[in-house]
Amino acid sequence: MDRITEQQIETDRMVLNFGPQHPATHGTLRIIMELEGETVKKATPEIGFLHSGFEKLGEDLDFNQYITITDRMNYLSPLCNNVAYALAAEKLMDLKVSKRTEYIRVLMCELSRIADHLLNVGMLAVDLGAMTAFLYGFRLREDIYDLFEIATGTRLTTSYTLVGGLMRDIPDEYDKAVIKVLDETDEVVNEIETLLNKNRIWQDRTKDIGVISKEDAISYGISGPMARASGIDWDIRVNEPPYSSYEDFDFDVAIALNGDVFDRYLVRMEEIRQSIKICRQSLDKMPTGDVSIDPDLGFSLPPKDEVYNSIEGLIYHFEVTMPNRGMTPPVGEAYVATESPNGELGYYIVSDGNRTPYRVRTRPPSLINYSIFSKLIEGHMLSDAPAILGSFNVIAGELDR
Amino acid sequence: MNQSEIKSNILTTTLESAINWGRKNSFWPMPFGTACCGIEFMAVLAARTDLSRFGAEAIRFSPRQSDLLIVAGRISIKMMPVLIRIYEQMPEPKWVISMGACASTGGVFDTYSVIQGVDQFIPVDVYVPGCPPRPEGVVEGMMKLQDLVGEEKLSDYSPAPDN
Amino acid sequence: MSLETSTYQLKEKFPEAILDITEFAGEKILHIKGQQILLVLTELKSDGYNFLADLTAIDNLTLGGFERFAVSYHLLSHERAERITVKAYVSEENPTLPSIESLWKTADWQEREVFDLYGIIFEEHPNLTRIMNPDDYEGYPLRKDYPRLGRKERDDFPVVDRGIQKKKPLGWTE
What we know:
The complex is a heterotrimer. Chain A has a single domain (53-94, 97-292, 330-368, 380-389), classed as Cytochrome-c3 Hydrogenase, chain B (Orthogonal Bundle). In chain A, the strands form 3 sheets. Chain A has a 3-stranded antiparallel beta sheet with strand order 1-2-3. In chain A, strands 6-7-8 form a 3-stranded antiparallel beta sheet. A two-stranded antiparallel ribbon of chain A has the order 4-5. Chain A is an alpha+beta fold. Chain A contains 17 helices and 8 strands. Chain A has helices at residues 54-57, 66-70, 78-93, 99-127, 131-152, 174-196, 200-206, 214-219, 225-228, 236-239, 261-284, 304-309, 311-321, 365-370, 373-376, 385-392, 396-400, and strands at 14-18, 30-36, 39-46, 161-162, 165-166, 332-340, 343-351, 359-363. In chain B, 43% of the residues are buried. Helix content of chain B is 36%, strand content 13%. Chain B contains 6 helices and 5 strands. In chain B, helix 3 packs across helix 6 (135-150). Chain B has a single domain (27-143), classed as Rossmann fold (3-Layer(aba) Sandwich), CATH 3.40.50.12280. Chain B has a 4-stranded parallel beta sheet with strand order 1-2-3-4. Chain C is an alpha/beta fold. Chain C has a single domain (3-145), classed as NADH:ubiquinone oxidoreductase Nqo5 subunit (Beta Polymerase, domain 2, 2-Layer Sandwich). Chain C is elongated, with a radius of gyration of 22 Å. Chains in contact: A-B, A-C, B-C. The A-C interface holds A 47-48, 51, 53, 55-57, 59-60, 91-92, 94, 216, 218-221, 232, 234, 239-241, 332-335, 337, 344, 346, 348, 350, 352, 358-359, 361, 363, 367-368, 371-372, 400 and C 24-25, 27, 29, 50-54, 56, 58-59, 62-63, 72, 74, 76, 78, 81, 83, 85, 104-106, 108-110, 113, 117, 130-134, 141-142, 148. Strand 5 of chain B pairs antiparallel with strand 8 of chain C, so a sheet runs across the interface.
């Protein structure tokens, strides 16, 4: 009888390049992996393939002009970036915006949060083979894009806020359109969860994969749904002094305990449900009023029909935008942290009194969350890499700026 | 066969028209999406505007199996060698659509690390303006490329002069 | 312990490290000398500021300040929901600071980014290499004396040789 003998074969490590151009890396990421068989022993991420010099541009552009640049960072939820930058500039200049502005900003932020989470769950599903969830999510995103287009004028790069208010008010019948989309979102979320939650393949590929412990999460600076999936009970809208009237809204914060890919997916789906709740509340309680502050203060642009039809409006407009005039902010610095769909998105603005900021810095949640990737993937197999990468929601525009 | 059957079963054309008809109705695109235009390109492929009407459904993400390179998004100095390599890996005949303002001219980003226009280094056939262009704009760009391909002649291609 | 008492205790413990304590828009900013940053941050971390939110640098060339470069650290305390900013000043001739990667692992990549864009060197960092720009890039782009349009690196690529020549379509103008 032949006896089966075990023999250790001398293997060499294979270096695999998960290149900057690859369908499963969403954006321009490069990971150099050393494999032994199919197990990943070491992974070195390389970033910077989309570095565009956003922060250098900020020193040459006006406070209001920079808002168009902030859209291009997290291009899946651009309104959240606009709102965060406007809040930082308003804190620097000590401006108070009207209640209606704050409610509209909350509505837009939460709609962007729904869109971002849907795309992220869709991409994670596509990487693991479940194409249907992606198509459901994308069809709903087109409806949300229609809502953005009615309010702001474009689908993706909205540039909706101004320092001190908004570009324009929302039109009259807007709440009916939003409620119709929110009802559809409820159904789509239920459909996606029916497809994926109890699916044997989904659970096998996402449970116990890429577990982040609580101590690691705090040490690596992780925030947002990824931190809440590891049990850290921190949501900037609730635990810190709330910004932009979030204290008027009643919603829950979703937390999971295991910290694996499945938990991050569940936390995101639950956050979509909470966002729908907040949107409904903001439409019910929407106050009336003006959306821009008094142009006399010299900071905000007056409404367009005053600019075109009255001489004072034209003068105020030129006072704010001409190159040798412009806003006069105080000398100082301000850091504002907001809760974006990826985590803590903060803007740090330093001003020296001129019409352009001295230094604009974005605290990028994608970059800081991504730094734990090389620790997570060690010991897992190669086919877990798209699952873990998909649960991070790395957006290359924010990563590299 | 009598005369009426011949008319409905045989068509005569030139070789160039037939080849161009085949090429222009079955582009196999290779999306090189880096930034926001990449998301709009995904929306072009999705249900509302559907790129597979043009025969362009086979997105294979492999340059050696595609003939249309769509550069969507800003190209930084670290990414440019990658783009050149991918362009060189594609076999002839190949076309390039430069989608968005950043790929065509650098867009809003006139900084130290964004290439001001991909056409400085690779030949571009159609430019689609917009930041990002609407999906209907990308479809218009595809249709313009189809017109261009329809008018190509075999004698347009000649070997490069030896320098 | 609130923000007032922790800054007061810091002033007692490290009197020569603290250059100034200012306040702007309701937030406290601590200005300290660069070399003492590790001691000050260890003290703040044991005091309850357990989360490092942001690490960045500012070039004070035209703004003025204690030195040319200021590396600013934004800390958050989860128990008390308070934030504090610490600015560490380093000079132009000797831009070195101790690295705080031993306290928070998130400082790893953020310090690499500060090194890449400003040229500030962090001692005892595990891997201080460029992260955003290519590895053979020269210069530190975010300094105030570096031009925004760069020094011609963005035009420095070879024009692709297609191997064949293709006639331009009718109506094409350069």
